[in-house]
C-alpha cells in the first residue's frame, strides 16, 4: 500500500469514528423542519402583495399559482406554474395529515381545481385570493373554503 493510499484509508477511518460521535444529520432537503420554516417565512414576507392574474413576482403581483411557484422557488424547490399542474405533480395528502408547507387545493369554478394556497398549520393557509385583494391568510374551516376544499399535496418531505 502506498503512503497516499494509507493516508486516505487512515483519514476515512478517522471520519467514520468521528461520525459515530456526532448527532443525527439535519434532514432538510428531504423534508426537514428547517426547509418548511424557510418556506413559510418566505410566504409570510409576501403578505399584502396585490393579486394580479398571471402575476409571478412581488413587483408585478401574484395570482394563486404564481404565488406558490415563486415562494417554493425562493427556497430551491421547483413546482409547476399552474394550479392544475401543481395539483397533478404533488403527492396527495389527506386533510388529517396536513403539515405546514403542504399545498391546499380548491374547486372554485365548478369541477376543476382552480385555486391553491400554502398550509400554515392550525387550520390556516396563505394565498393570493382574487382580483382587488392581496396575499392574505384564511381558515380551512371558513364555510366558503370548507365547501370548496378539494385536497392537498406535498412537495416538501416524505
Question: Which helices and strands, and how do they pair?
Answer:
Elements: H1 3-19, H2 33-45, E1 56-57, E2 61-62, H3 64-74, H4 83-89, E3 91-93, E4 103-106, E5 115-121, E6 124-127, E7 136-139, H5 143-148, E8 149-154
Antiparallel strand pairs: 1-2, 3-8, 4-5, 4-8, 5-6, 6-7
Key words describing this protein structure:
single chain, 6-stranded antiparallel β-sheet, alpha+beta, endopeptidase fold (from Nostoc punctiforme), globular, 158 residues
Quick recap:
This protein is 34% helix and 20% strand.
How would you describe the overall organization of this protein?
By secondary structure, the protein is of the alpha+beta class. It has one domain (31-154): endopeptidase domain like (from Nostoc punctiforme) (endopeptidase fold (from Nostoc punctiforme)), CATH 3.90.1720. It is 34% helix and 20% strand. It has helices at residues 3-19, 33-45, 64-74, 83-89, 143-148, and strands at residues 56-57, 61-62, 91-93, 103-106, 115-121, 124-127, 136-139, 149-154. The strands form two sheets. Strands 3-8-4-5-6-7 form a six-stranded antiparallel beta sheet. α2 crosses α3 (64-74). The longest helix is centred in the first third of the chain and has 17 residues, at 3-19. The protein is globular.
Helix/strand class:
alpha+beta
The CA-CA distance between the termini, in Å, is 44 Å
What CATH calls the topology is endopeptidase fold (from Nostoc punctiforme)
Strand arrangement within the widest β-sheet reads 3-8-4-5-6-7
Q: Note the total helix count.
A: 5
Order of helices and strands: HHEEHHEEEEEHE
Tell me the strand percentage band: 15-25%
Mean pLDDT: 85
CATH class: Alpha Beta
Low-confidence stretches: 4-30
Name the shape in a single word: globular
Amino acid at each position: 500500500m502506498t503512503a497516499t493510499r494509507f493516508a486516505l484509508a487512515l483519514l476515512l477511518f478517522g471520519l467514520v469514528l468521528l461520525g459515530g460521535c456526532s448527532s443525527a444529520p439535519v434532514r432538510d432537503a428531504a423534508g426537514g423542519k428547517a426547509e418548511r420554516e424557510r418556506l413559510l417565512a418566505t410566504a409570510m414576507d409576501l403578505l399584502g402583495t396585490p393579486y394580479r392574474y398571471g402575476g409571478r413576482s412581488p413587483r408585478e403581483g401574484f395570482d394563486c399559482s404564481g404565488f406558490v411557484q415563486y415562494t417554493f422557488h425562493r427556497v430551491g424547490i421547483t413546482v409547476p406554474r399552474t394550479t392544475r399542474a401543481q395539483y397533478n405533480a404533488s403527492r396527495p395528502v389527506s386533510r388529517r395529515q396536513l403539515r405546514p408547507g403542504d399545498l391546499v387545493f380548491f374547486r372554485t369554478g365548478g369541477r376543476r381545481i382552480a385555486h391553491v394556497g400554502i398550509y400554515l398549520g392550525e387550520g390556516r393557509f396563505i394565498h393570493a385570493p382574487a382580483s382587488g385583494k392581496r396575499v392574505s391568510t384564511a381558515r380551512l374551516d371558513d364555510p366558503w373554503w370548507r365547501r370548496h376544499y378539494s385536497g392537498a399535496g406535498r412537495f416538501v418531505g416524505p
